[in-house]
Specification:
Distance between the termini: 10 Å
Structural class: alpha+beta
Strand order of the largest sheet: 1-2-4-3
Strand content: 5-15%
Shape: elongated
């Protein structure tokens, strides 16, 4: 089983005539990069919310929005009446002293400091419990989204790893031809040298065997097959192992690169390029695996 780090979830609940909406999004990240944006009344429980989210989602760039919708007849503001009348009295005195006939007091006073004050709202215990329950629902919804995305990626990984496994036998078709070509090239060069210098045939054969052993890639093919099978086994494990899969992909890449450097054959190099192309597509997707 694998999970994507990309996901989306939401939930909502009602309390005291208000509707509280929770929205949560996640993208890929090496760590748990969590940000919560909520109204002031829920700030005191932000640490508990972080625990709920981080324990279930583990990793990712996670953004949480908690929005409160108030009914139409609800007001978060009230007028500071004593302060209003104090300003009114002082303005009235100014009008009397200056004989200014303008008496647009209301608009002036309402713009003065602290006349219109915001009511501080605090969440009660029941509302906090409802918030925790709704957050769990939103997180579970996002986790299900991640799992569904992961299933899609799993099928793609299986397809591309199997392409790599199917390309390995293609390499074997050109191996015999490759060795013969290398031998022929060496003998051709030898004849050119032998015309001017005396060659020790026995020593030459020893050097030729040593060279052919160095360019032999049987071990690389065996390890490449083992790593591919290990990758297929890992994506089917109970937990999502994005980092482990990345390490296996690095080992696959190493064997493919060594295979290419030892090939000395155009047909095999073409197969190696195909392998690299498939592996690169796998690596691109692995950055988004939990």
């Amino acid at each position: 089983m694998i999970k994507s780090m990309t996901g989306y979830g939401k939930s909502s609940f009602e309390s005291n005539g208000k509707k509280i909406n929770i929205e949560i999004k996640s993208l890929n990240s090496k760590q748990c990069d969590l940000s919560i944006k909520s109204s002031q009344q829920f700030k005191e429980v932000e640490s508990e919310l972080r625990n709920i989210i981080s324990q279930k989602l583990e990793r990712g760039k996670i953004e949480v929005y908690i929005n409160v919708e108030y009914p139409e007849n609800f007001s978060q503001y009230s007028i500071n009446r004593p302060l209003y009348f104090k300003y009114h009295k002082e303005l009235t005195g100014l009008v009397w002293d200056t004989q200014d006939k303008t008496k647009e007091y209301l608009n002036i006073i309402m713009r003065m400091p602290d006349v219109l004050k915001q009511e501080k709202e605090e969440a009660n215990a029941n509302e906090i419990n409802l918030l925790f329950d709704a957050m769990n629902v939103a997180v579970d919804t996002l986790d299900t989204y991640r799992l569904n995305e992961g299933n899609t990626l799993l099928k793609d990984f299986e397809k591309r790893i199997n392409i790599l496994l199917n390309l390995l036998p293609e390499v074997e078709k050109f191996e015999k031809h490759r060795i013969e070509n290398i031998k022929a090239k060496i003998y051709s060069n030898l004849l050119a040298v032998e015309a001017e210098h005396k060659i020790d045939k026995n020593r030459f054969e020893q050097e030729l065997i040593y060279y052919l052993e160095k360019i032999d890639f049987t071990e690389e093919k065996i390890r490449l097959k083992q790593h591919c099978n290990f990758f297929l086994d890992t994506i089917k494990e109970e937990i999502s192992n994005g980092k482990k899969l990345s390490f296996i992909a690095q080992e696959i890449s190493r064997e493919i690169n060594t295979l290419g450097s030892k090939a000395n054959d155009f047909d095999i190099q073409k197969i190696v390029v195909e392998m690299k192309d498939e592996l690169e597509k796998i690596k691109e997707q692995l950055s988004n695996i939990l």
